[in-house]
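Re: duplicated header lines in exported structure tokens

Our pipeline writes sequence and tokens for each protein into one text file. With two proteins the header for the second block appears twice in some exports. Here is an export where it did not happen, for reference. First protein block:
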Amino acid sequence: MDVNDLSATYYADNEATNLMPPSVREKLKKSPLYSKDGQRDKAEVVVKYWGPSGAGTWLITEGEEQENGDWRLFGMMHIFEWEWGYIMLSELENVKTPPFGLCIERDLYSNGTIAELRGVLDDGAT
């Protein structure tokens, strides 16, 4: 079995690779864009996405479904450094990280504020 077959099997059976299940969709509907304006590090994270190869962490605090069905997401993101910004769900869904073409995953267990999750992340985890 080659790496692509293993990857396809893993992602077909893995709940973490469903980036927008109904539970996250409902939480984001209660946290539309700009609803947490000014809260900064005290903003509650709705969903955390991460790259299993170690590159990339997205702490999403707000989001809004677009007319085309895609989602515009806002939060604190880390690729090379922490920064606030927007990303489209479709962009996350299309990322394939080297060397094995791994997809971005949804963290099933993290919850808290930006400050809490960044504190955990800054202590050594990605």
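Second protein block, exported in the same file:
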Amino acid sequence: MTRLAVEKVRWAPSIDLAKDLVHNKRMEVNVHKAKTHLSKLLERVALGEEVIIAKAGKPVAKLVPVHQPKTRIFGSAKGEFTVPDDFNEPDEEIEKLFYAGDLFPEDNSTK
């Protein structure tokens, strides 16, 4: 390989799937990257992300999940359960664990 070819390989843009997944819900890759990383791209699509495949910088295809999330209908569980009257009241056992339990023991050395 010539030095120029080595420089091109060293500075070739890479595909950082973890970074792209955090920052983008949609990513665009060229045909070569799509062929090279198809299994990784399909994993991302399975998680709900869209992947656009471009040829010469122009989008030509879109990979999307087969099963779209179901839309939730507000109030669809009405009457299936009831909220107790004391739902928002403090629970003595939980307060005891937080304030008098081993989670935050009192420091007697400073008193």
